Structure formats: C-alpha cells, structure tokens
Amino acid sequence: MPLAGFQISQVGDAAEGLVAAKKLLDDGTDGIKFYAATPGRNDVVVPEAAMQAGVKEAHARGKPVFSHPSSEAGLMASVHSGVDVVAHTPSTKFGESARLGRVAVGLAADLTVLSDDPSRDVHAFTSVQYTLRDGNVIYQRPTNYQLPTTNH
User: Fold this and answer.
1) Alpha carbons 25 and 1: distance in angstroms, whole number
2) From CA 5, how far away is CA 124, in angstroms rounded?
C-alpha cells in the first residue's frame, strides 16, 4: 500500500507533539493516530506528554485520536494520554481475548467506518465517517464536511 498520502512525524516531547498535531489538523486530517510504541526488543514508546499534547489539540478541534500500541508500555501511555481508540492491539497479548479482539454480539468493540475502501485507495483512511467505541458513537463527521480532493 503506498504511503505517499500519510504524514508521519516523530515526537519526543509535548512541544513536538503539539506542533505535529497542529500540522496534521491544519492540513485537514479527520483524526490523529499515534504509533505509541515501536515493536521489537527495543520498544521506543512515545512519551505521554507528547501524546497528551496531541490529544488535547485534536479534542479541542473535535477530532478523534487513535493509538496503535505494540507493547504494554505503549498501551499504558495511550490510556494515560486519553486517546479515544486503541487500535490493532491483539487482545490475547493483554489477556482480554474473551472480551475483545473481534466483532461479535456481547463483546466490546471499537470500529472506524470509512467513506471508501482503503484497499483500493489509501486516501480512504482520511475519510472517516464515524467512530464507535464500545457501541457508542464518539466521532461523526459533520454533515457539511467536504472531503478533500486528492491528486493521485
């Protein structure tokens, strides 16, 4: 999948987190996603202060914040920072497979609904219709919102 449409920033403190969040939001993104921890033996966790600054800015603009932790430290940083949705976390890794990890009746689920199919066009990731957390809508795109046009 081509990554040309993605903006990726590395942030190490609150000031960098705020600058990166403002740039993404000013450029018209529908939300922010933190890769809270890099996978592998040498996990690098995004500092909570950096994530908190991004979360605060996104929430001030009515935008959701997602996190992709790949370690327990990344998960805890995400939770402490106040992200809205923790995504792509294997529930078995954290002992929650009986309650989480798939969409089924009676299980807790976080879902993001897009306007288009990202397997056909990577830019579909920027067209969030709404986000559900545990069955409740936590973000819904305004009805007067115009999707940005892309040149690809």
Assistant:
1) 23
2) 10
| Rounded-to-integer distance, Cα 79 and Cα 24, Å | 21
Each of the 152 residues of the chain gets a pLDDT tens digit; together they read 344 455 566 888 999 999 999 999 999 888 888 888 766 656 678 899 999 999 999 999 999 888 888 777 888 888 889 888 877 666 666 666 666 666 667 777 677 888 877 667 767 777 788 888 777 888 888 777 665 555 54
Q: Where are the domains of the chain?
A: 14-140
Q: Is the pTM of this model over 0.85?
A: no
Classify domain 14-140 by CATH number. 3.40.50
Closest CA to 85 of 124, 55, 43, 50: 55
